[in-house]
Design brief:
CATH topology of the largest domain: Ribosomal Protein L4, Chain: A
Shape: elongated
Strand order of the largest sheet: 2-1-3-6-4-5
Order of helices and strands: EEHHHEHEHEHEHH
Number of strands: 6
Helix content: 25-40%
Distance between the termini: 25 Å
Radius of gyration: 26 Å
CATH superfamily of the largest domain: Ribosomal protein L4/L1
Oligomer: single chain
Number of domains: 2
Amino acid sequence: MRVPVYNISGEVVKNIDIADSVFAVPANEAVVYQALVRQLANARQGTASSKTRSEVAGSKQKMYRQKHTGRSRAGSLRSPLRRGGGITFGPKPRDYRQSMPRSMRRLAIRCVLSAKVSGNELMVLDELKFREPKTKEMANVLSALSVADSTLIAISSPEANIVKSARNLPGVKTIPARQLNVVDVISYKKLLMTEEAVRQVEELWGKEMPQEAKQEVSQETSDASV
């Protein structure tokens, strides 16, 4: 598959071939959905906790005698029926993490990248560099490319000038290509990638990697939960 490559002025400078094994994969909504749910679940802290009637503060003594008061029967102040009492079946700390086979995780990211290509939502830049952090310069680049509203920028490696130039723009996020994930790709309308980032993605998800490379990538992408 061939796609055009743009410069920062929005002009087509050349066309490049991209791997069909990464950018032309048939849609598999079930796998993408499972990967999406897994990533969102793995991001949950799972620290919500409420107190039961045995944990809240208050006396265990019966509030008043059973009969001859004209009031309804009442036991402990800690009863879930009373204000300030314990919570019935409330949340407790738990682990929400879900597992998913590596082959399915890799297929999911290929599917969402392919969807961006088929929907004309992927743009490739020849390069993206700034001498200093300038939000205005980044805004001008995105405006020239007509992708200013909701854009995910994938770069080959974290560059402070690019990150700082984009972080104050609403609806724009920068991410290293190795940390691309299903949630981020789906969440933004446009995916803007440098040519170097495209090659990294092809190397990472286009074929099986040796064990040493797997360990290195696993360490780099642990926070992304792809």
